[in-house]
Amino acid sequence: MQNRISRRTLIQTGLMAGVALPGLGMICSSALAAGLPPLDPADPTAKALGFVTDTTKVDAAANPTHKPTQKCGVCAQFQGKPGDATGGCNIFVGKSVPQGGWCKVFAAKPGA
Ligand code: SF4
């Protein structure tokens, strides 16, 4: 039995791996974010930071600088991709937040 691998096979395999691996990484990071449990607004830290799942429900009297355009999906701390319904948050590690949520730590993503 001949067990030789041709140079062509090695090059083709290497090229396919080079194309497939970055895509696999993106799929894995999305899958990991999708698997995070949602942040509970009753969580003590979430409460302290005024987290709400819907930015239109923010108490304007308690948060006079809040604007309805401020939401997790355009926050610098949001780890999801544009258009993701939910994503991780750098402030609430291990939890997901909805793209339409908000908290007092909101800071607009550069360019958003
Ligand atoms: S830090 Fe940003 S992404 Fe995280 S909960 Fe607050 S507003 Fe949403």
Largest sheet: 2 strands, antiparallel
The main sheet orders its strands as: 1-2
Approximate helicity band:
25-40%
- CA(first)-CA(last) distance: 61 Å
Descriptive key words:
single chain; 2 helices; two-stranded antiparallel sheet; 112 residues; mainly alpha; binds iron/sulfur cluster
Describe the structure in brief.
Helices cover 29% and strands 5% of the residues. The chain has 112 residues and is mostly helical. It has a two-stranded antiparallel sheet with strand order 1-2.
Walk me through this protein's architecture.
There is one protein chain. With 112 residues, the protein is mostly helical. 29% of the residues lie in helices and 5% in strands. The chain is built from two helices and two strands. Strand 1 and strand 2 form a beta hairpin. The longest helix has 28 residues. It is elongated, with a radius of gyration of 21 Å. It starts with 6 loop residues before the first helix and ends in a 14-residue tail after the last strand. About 12% of the residues have low confidence. Bound molecules: iron/sulfur cluster. Iron/sulfur cluster binds next to loops.
